């Protein structure tokens, strides 16, 4: 069982050399980051608890990847470019050994390298449950951060990637899915790729954005409520993977499952209709699949249309729209 100091030096110090070195990094009482003129800081934080936010048997590489990825997804939704991150780690004794820590550090290194961001500090404590809190820092041109609240009436709504694979990945853990499909969904659950380049590319085009973590419907309603509007969604336009479609049998339940499952880490964006071509260019330039799914309307309800007819309607007090958590 390595002592705290050795553990930090051995497994976490190497991550401080990824990308641009901070003015002061791991080893002092705090990290010091240089400010760049004309840029605002965007700071996000998210906690993952073993058994709550990921299954107990999740591989250490995947736990680390996910802890950082969910934070980078929040930065992407703000249009921010990641700069650095810190890690508060609560480690149970059964994981405080070389095999687990090395694999955990590897997962963290892989994603940090993708975005060239150093680990600049953190805290390490011991307790009987694994808990990880990552704080990520990003930059955005001054005054341009994307908000949930900026959407206007008649703005179009679009979503990146596909919806429902993360939830399917979780279901497939219990062996409900066949071979290859289970693997692609599990990949989405365990190694989500935050839409960072798309998020920063749509600055000045999008009027509002949010990332999908609690579930498509719940997060869409966070955007519409913050913007004090409602939305109309065409179900036929919703992007689903083959694996998710294979589970549809036409019942209402099967349709709502991918829309409420969570763990997608895609972006829902609103933008004025005249920016559609520029948004599509952003999608091509960043190789980010992008699908228009509806628009903002007056009111406070989210209406799902199927075959040009209203199919379902959700209001602000509906608790069925998403994964309700308070932990
Ligand atoms: P302090 O007692 O001042 O809080 P610590 O002993 O907790 O200092 O941490 C020593 C140094 O190691 C600090 O620079 C801190 O940011 C860093 N550190 C501690 N835990 C981690 C971690 N899990 N990941 C990265 N850096 C860490
Ligand atoms: Mg400390």
Largest sheet: 7 strands, mixed
- Strand order within the widest beta sheet: 6-8-5-9-7-10-11
**What structural class do you assign from the helix and strand content?**
alpha+beta
Radius of gyration: 20 Å
CATH superfamily of the largest domain: PurM-like C-terminal domain
Query: What is the molecular shape?
Result: globular
Helix content: 25-40%
Broad CATH class of the largest domain: Alpha Beta
The helix-strand sequence is HEHEHEEEHHHEHEHHEHEEE
Mean pLDDT across every amino acid position: 91
DSSP strand (E) fraction? 15-25%
* Attached small molecules: adenosine-5'-diphosphate, magnesium ion
When the domains are counted, the total is 2
From the N-terminal CA to the C-terminal CA, the straight-line distance is 29 Å
Oligomer: single chain
What's the architecture of the largest domain, going by CATH?
Alpha-Beta Complex
Can you tell me the residue ranges where pLDDT is under 50 for at least 5 consecutive residues?
A: none
Beta strand count? 11
Question: What tags apply to this protein structure?
Answer:
Phosphoribosyl-aminoimidazole Synthetase, Chain A, domain 2; single chain; 60s Ribosomal Protein L30, Chain: A; alpha+beta; binds adenosine-5'-diphosphate; binds magnesium ion; 7-stranded mixed sheet; 10 helices; 327 residues
Strand and helix map with partners:
Elements: H1 4-12, E1 39-49, H2 60-77, E2 81-91, H3 98-115, E3 119-126, E4 131-141, E5 156-160, H4 165-172, H5 179-190, H6 196-201, E6 208-211, H7 216-226, E7 230-234, H8 242-245, H9 252-260, E8 267-271, H10 276-285, E9 290-297, E10 302-306, E11 309-314
Parallel strand pairs: 2-3, 7-10
Antiparallel strand pairs: 1-4, 2-4, 5-8, 5-9, 6-8, 7-9, 10-11
Helix pairs in contact: 2-3, 4-5
Adenosine-5'-diphosphate (ADP) is lined by residues 8, 12, 26-29, 87, 89, 119, 121-124.
